[in-house]
Amino acid sequence: MKKSNLFEVLIASISIMLVISSLALLHPNKVEFVQGRFSGLSDFKFSMFDTVLYLSYLLSGVFSGFLAARLGKRKIFVLVGSLGTAVFTFLLTLVDSSYTLVLVLRFLQGAFCVAAWQTLMTIILDLSNDSNRGRNMGIFGFFMAMGMGASPVLGGAIAKAGVFVPYWVASVQCLVAFLVCLFLIDEIKMAENSKKPSIVDSFSILYRRKQLLVPSLFNFVDRLHMGFILFVMPMMLSEVLGLGPQYRGMLIGINGLAFIILQFPIGKLSDKFGRLRFLVPGSICYGICLCLTGFAARFGLPGLAVIFFILGVFSGFTGPPNNALVGDYVTKEENPLAMGAFTLFGNIGMIVGPFFAGLLFSLADFATPTAKFTVAFVFAGLIELATLATGMSILFFSRKKTQKIEEVLLAE
Asked: Most Cβ neighbours (<10 Å): which of 16, 67, 199, 234?
């Protein structure tokens, strides 16, 4: 029986949730897993456990995107990626004598993981067209948010049973994703005369498709804010409100609830009314609310709960339309290259976020902790608004140039 388009989108989205959440499961017990086994590590060496992971995202995302486009294949990258993630996640639990080897395995874990979920996201683009791309990205966003939001809570709970348990569960999740994709996802059929991109095409996609810079920039700033908030929020809760780490999960959950609920309806509505009608006002309101987050902390935990819920609402307005824009601006054959560029910008943003916050804190001497976090969130919000202005400028000038070319062709 022929699978429906919606069925395949659902299967790909569920598989993304399984693969992405396999790494999110591991966040809560990093201290016990690393420092509990390798005593005497400096803070810098401990930070390398995540640094090499983000580095693998950067390199593997571009490389796997190029290979998928060059070979015209998708399924093999999902299968190898999910199986490789399962294997290297399990191998991390077997090494207890060499931290260097742990870092190598951590890099390989991330490289295979990003190859799997980035290719699954490319498959969703391949299955989409102008009439349903927003809806499909809404479905993807829903399952991705579920995986990223619920997994740290689950990981913290099962870590009580043993430091390795989250890693074993994560490996099983990836094996399930492997089996699901093996039997339920078909290879995408490419046109026989489709162009096989060169390595130059891989790096010039943003030059040839300048409009692709817009969703890529928004993905950069979205992930920048994610890294920024995950770094700054625990410090703010402790230094300003004197609250423990358990409240971090509560605020992330409040933020994620609104984000998850809005993924599908906003994505579907963007198919009907256009991406920018949601992306522009959502980005403006998100930037303003982010500027106000530090001020909201003066009203205690209730103030932060309200502002984080509102931030989740406006994230829901920007997420699916921005993801759909990737497919709007490229051909089907270019989907892997476009997704590689898109995720590259996002992964850079994830690294820049905490770096930006740390740099700001080190450069300025704030009178009070409240002032420190108030200023930090104002700068973060202004970055959102600046990104919106930049993105809209790129769209305006690229469309103006396209219009002039069309006028010349018509005149001839």
From this structure: 16
DSSP letters spanning 20-44: HHHHHTTSTTHIIIIITTSTT--HH
C-beta neighbour count of 70 within 10 angstroms:
16
Q: 118: which 2 tokens? A: 């980035």
Q: Which residues contact 242 (CB under 8 A, 6 or more apart)?
A: none
What is the band of 412 on the pLDDT scale with cuts at 50, 70, 90?
Answer: very low
Question: What is the model's pLDDT at position 309?
Answer: 93
**What's the alpha-carbon Rg for the chain, to the nearest Å?**
21
Structure letter (DSSP) for residue 240: T
Q: Pick 396 or 105 by higher pLDDT.
A: 105
Distance CA 386, CA 283 (A): 10
Which of 300, 313, 304 lies closest to 266, judged by CA?
313
What is the chain's mean pLDDT, rounded?
85
Torsion of CA 223, 227, 229, 230, to 10 degrees: 130
Q: CA-to-CA distance for 220 and 200, rounded, in angstroms? A: 23
Distance CA 299, CA 171 (A): 42
pLDDT above 60 for 261: yes
**Nearest alpha-carbon partner for 326 in 342, 346, 344, 315:** 342
Q: At 154, phi and psi to the nearest 5?
A: -65, -40
Instruction: For residue 42, give Cα distances in angstroms to 183, 227, 300, 346.
Output: 46, 22, 34, 28
CATH domain 1-187 topology: Growth Hormone; Chain: A; (1.20.1250)
Domain-wise residue ranges, the chain: 1-187, 202-412
List pLDDT tens digits, range 320-360.
999 999 988 888 888 888 888 888 898 888 888 888 888 88
Superfamily of domain 202-412: MFS general substrate transporter like domains (1.20.1250.20)
**What DSSP designation does 330 have?**
S
Confidence (pLDDT) at 403: 47
Domains 1-187 and 202-412 share a fold: yes
- Alpha-carbon gap, residue 271 to 410, rounded angstroms: 30
